[in-house]
Amino acid sequence: MTSDAPQNDSTQLKQNSLSAPAERSGFTRALAIAAAVLLVSGTLVELLHASAVVGLALRCGGFVLFIPFAVWRRSLLVWTFFAMLAGAELGVDTPHFAAQTQFLAEIFLRLIRMIVAPLIFGGIVTGIAGHGELKGVGRVALKAIIFFEVVTTAGLVIGLIAINLSQAGVGVILPAIVGAAAPAVHHSWQDVLLNIFPENIAQAVAQNQILQVAVFALLFGTALATMAEAKRAPLVSVLQSLTETMFRLTRIVMYMAPVAAGAALAFTVGSMGFATLLPLMKLVATYYAALIVFVLLVLVPTLLIARIPLRRFWLAVAEPAAIGFATTTSEAALPLAMERMEEFGVPRWIVSFVIPTGYSFNLTGSSLYLSTAAIFAAQAAGVHLGWGEQLVMLATLLLTSKGVAGVPRSSLVILLATAGAMHIPIAAVMMILGVDTLMDMGRTAMNVTGNCMAAAVVARWEGELQTQATLAQI
Question: Which domain covers residue 171, as residue numbers?
Fold first, then answer.
């Protein structure tokens, strides 16, 4: 009996040590649920104009309860989500102050732009020259381009069907300022191809033309791979160290991501407000419904067919997608997306090639947006487009959307070009700017997710995707 006492005590201590984290996790989860209830209740009270003071008190209580959950989880995704909620609240309550917070998001974006070019260059070159992947580059490029075209076409079609079903533009009153038809901005196929190749690598880096940087890296890596081992080894070693350093720098910069996300959302809400957006909410709802359909009918089946575990993939892309959603720029999420997909099991050389290339050819969220917004503009302007004309519009969007990733607000440029070709008044396109940021959040998150999916699928087709067990051994 006496000899069993120490064993029983040690067993009890072990059980207590195991149950303590579980109890704390359950408690913080309950706090998160209570916080969500208070936040939703406070928002509803505000929307119903019941009592502004009560609504504010409920939302503040929700934020206070959410803090212990965020501290306990220590997750970039949770912190980013909390910062987005706080930023939206700041934009509603103090719009003038919130409109001055954009500089925080701009600092974050500048730091990201500083990382992107050397990260892509080092990843591609070391993959080709350092791991003997020269033969696989052409094969991966072909598979990636085919995948990009199929998925973006599916996005265009789903957006077209969604806006025709909802008829969101019918009955919308155009602004009083009605301009002439939008001037057509022509992007011939020669222009698209020409824009892929850099004439000056320093200029490409300065203008953040990531596709041109990727092409230069491909050519540089190919040239380096053809050299003798003794001559290429020192440079490959330096570039491998450079790439590792840039990934480490990415982790440091990402600590600022929640602050940047909150500041970006505070600026958006504070500068625009919600009241002016209500007439266009049907368009926003149609777009997000189309995004959900795209996820269910295209993204999930593709992952299942490629035998990619859904839960692991979601955990890998959640943080980059959240950063893209809050900052409305895929560029901000690029370094983290590359790091997460490498951790997921995609080889670095495939990640470094497929994801940057996808920023010009695999904008799945943007393809949904373009078809939805173009038909909405036609409906709002009273321009009837038959199915044949709508198919022509789809083909135009499919071509003009390639190779303009480096153009700021490129979606607007493409919409204006399409509007000019279809004789749609420019006012019908410009009125979408009121809700463009709200839609840009969703399309950026989908662009990031789609590019991560492309990297995983291409790696699976190549037989290079490492399983969780293999990664654990490494």
Answer: 102-473
